[in-house]
Design brief:
2 copies of one chain form a homodimer. Chain A is an alpha/beta fold and 255 residues long. In chain A, 23% of the residues lie in helices and 27% in strands. The longest helix of chain A has 16 residues, at 142-157. The N and C termini of chain A lie far apart (56 Å). Chains A and B meet through α2, α3, α4, α5 and β7 of A and α2, α3, α4, α5 and β7 of B.
Chain lengths: 255, 255
């Protein structure tokens, strides 16, 4: 059997250590092609670039891996790869990450990592976004690599035809401390923003976005926030149908 | 009873005609505060600004309406409004739009308009994003204003306590041609990208994102794409829980 073709993107950019860790794992399993942003794109959500042209440049950063950097967002990277690189090649799996920082709860909305994976899923590809709960650029990806290899192999080995979009978060603890993998749901949570105000030399205020994340379901044990706080790798099956189906029969008062 | 406090943002920016149309309607119903981007932010999805500071400047563009422009994305606008303007004031309704261009199907993911509404919903506010299926900056918002007033009044009059995040799309036809309002679900659809390649004066290629949108459920009559193609205003109850709940019991092969 020929090796699976694995496409990889991320949002921390082509030079991120987390991307290198994911490439290292994936190339032991399949043929890998990378298209990643040329600069960090954290917090870019599902943005696409429509007002500026994009560049795609071949780079030589990973041994024996076809790699490109793109001037756009993570979603742009996947769209360019699809249209320019994969017109005649069938991708078996789309991966994104490993993100430096968790993408649990509603952070899936702000996450460029998950948007790249979501673009893969929209194209009908099995897609997985990986994030490590450690923002440091020097984070230790040893435990992540172990679990990521396991998850990729199980997804590729499964002959299930169902669409798959997985949001995987890994706790920032040693491999031997991780208790296993938990399938769970996105926790309800939100940011309490506290814009930090400064005054520029002309006396005009400016603000930095900052804040504290709050888990609104502290007692629930079936959520991604619970899982990574309790030593599990969280796997949330995710979706790009944002319809609240349970409310469809409940809105006749608007008609 | 005191007038409801209505907060409005958009993604086409503070000078967009669609924003003015929405403010015109909302100020007949309540007290209105606007925070909108200082420049167009189409396609910015749920991006937030974390690497640059933000500015918030009071402007005088709408008669008798407190208005601010913000240097950030639509999501930034809502976050700044919450933290800086509404610390001591309770917002009754969050509106976004009227977007110049439809946000049906998966375009909710790329839409700054819907991201602003979604930020309102995350804060527990009843929130509605409005889009007109006409990209022209000179679009005619007459029919939109009629239906938007109807929808806002019904949402405010309803004493239901359920969370509400509505994605409303209006067809680009005359008021008397519109058949009514349809509650529907997000259609499955996707973009077929065709990057348009050009060569710069130095001989290096660059690409413009372009494409065609494809409805993958042409026969379904309960979708937003069907509704606006058939003369209805579409209302999709939407969600920021992206968990695919139906798949939670189906992934044990990964553990």
């Amino acid at each position: 059997m020929s090796k699976p073709l694995i496409f990889i993107s991320n949002d921390d950019g082509i030079t991120a250590k987390g991307l290198r860790a994911l490439v290292d794992v994936a190339k032991t399993i399949g043929e890998v092609v990378v298209v990643a942003p040329d600069k960090p794109q954290s917090g870019k959500g599902h943005a696409v670039t429509i007002k500026y042209p994009l560049r795609l440049t071949k780079v030589d950063v990973f041994e024996n891996v076809e790699s490109w950097m793109c001037t756009g967002t993570p979603a742009d990277c996947v769209k360019m790869a699809k249209d320019i690189l994969f017109k005649d090649r069938n991708v078996d799996l789309v991966l994104s990450g490993i993100n430096h920082g968790a993408n649990t709860s509603i952070n899936i909305l702000y996450s460029g990592t998950m948007s790249a994976a979501m673009e893969g899923a929209i194209e009908g590809k099995k897609s997985i976004g990986f994030s490590l709960d450690d923002f440091s650029s020097e984070a230790d990806f040893t435990a992540s690599k172990h679990y990521i290899e396991k998850i990729i192999r199980r997804v590729l080995d499964s002959d299930r035809d169902q669409p798959l979009l997985l949001n995987v978060n890994i706790p920032s603890i040693q491999l031997e401390e991780i208790k296993g993998i938990k399938i769970c749901r996105q926790s309800r949570g939100k940011w309490t923003e506290e814009f930090s105000k400064s005054i520029d030399p002309r006396g005009v205020p400016y603000y930095w976005l900052t804040g504290r994340f709050e888990n609104l379901e502290k007692d629930a044990t079936d959520t991604d926030l619970w899982a990574i706080a309790n030593g599990y790798v969280s796997v949330v099956p995710s979706n790009f149908d944002l319809t609240k189906h349970s409310q469809l029969d409940d809105l006749d008062f608007i008609i």
